[in-house]
Amino acid sequence: MRRALVAGNWKMNGTKASAEALVLGLREGLSGCAGVDVVVCPSAVYMDRLQRLLEGSVIGLGAQNASEYGGGAYTGELSLEMLKEFGCAYVILGHSERRALFGETDAQICAKFVAAKSAGLVPVLCVGETLEEREAGLAFDVVGRQLDSVLKTQGAEALEGAVVAYEPVWAIGTGKTASPEQAQEVHAFIRARVLAESEQVANALRIVYGGSVNAANASTLFSMADIDGGLVGGASLKVDEFITVCQAAGR
User: Lowest mean pLDDT: which of 17-21, 72-76, 163-167, 177-181?
Assistant: First the structure.
């Protein structure tokens, strides 16, 4: 049985005060939440303080991005070892905003994935199609290509212990959500593609859904056979709503 995962991607939101208040509220509200791994991914500048506030809680700490380089003359970058030193256990890689706004390529995301695994962090590999690609019938082609950047170059074993997040770009921050059936169809496709390489890895692989997940739709989405939790954006910034999403995944 795969253990559910819910990760809150705070993106470039929050202040020191609001980040601390959010974590303290989640720590209290999720103290009895079982059957689900919960992670918050704040801006890196808050990680030191939040690590201390989360100590002894059921909530893990994740990063929204990281460099593929171990250190050196890379101005403005953050290495995985730096993040790990502050208690970071997960790292989101290949988010659609990183691909679209910052030009990250499949090859670069794969390099970050490999570096994250080598550093002992859990990479959350994001894949997903735009609205234009879906309407053109290319959703599986796009998702397959993005997944294959790791699967076909590093082998299925590279996905052991990792997480794949399906995030249809057209449903991120738009209020639109893929129907449970649409999401399940792509999740099943991802698992089948990994299954063709390794049954063991495919059966254990956690595939989470990201795309306007909220308190109202979480239970229905998480009831699908191949949806193992969520990568949550806006709803993760609201204590009560994020708690409800986490509880839905833990059932």
Answer: 177-181
Residues recognised as catalytic: 95, 167
Q: How far apart are CA 230 and CA 196, in angstroms?
A: 24
- Rounded to whole angstroms, the Cα distance separating 249 from 3 reads 9
**Distances from the Cα of 141 to the Cα of 136, 188, 189, 190, angstroms:** 11, 14, 11, 11
Cite the DSSP H helix spans in the chain.
16-29, 47-54, 80-85, 96-102, 106-119, 131-135, 139-154, 180-195, 199-204, 218-222, 239-249
Query: Token pair for residue 143?
Result: 């998702």
Please give the Cα distance from 241 to 251 (Å, whole number): 16
Distances (CA, A) of 207 to 6, 42, 55, 230, 231: 11, 21, 27, 8, 10
pLDDT of residue 174: 77
Tokens for 197, please give them. Answer: 């390489």
* Predicted TM-score of the model (pTM): 0.96
pLDDT-derived band at 204 (thresholds 50, 70, 90) equals very high
The DSSP secondary-structure symbol of 55 reads T
Q: What is the DSSP letter of 215?
A: T
The number of helix segments (H) and strand segments (E) in the chain equals 11, 8
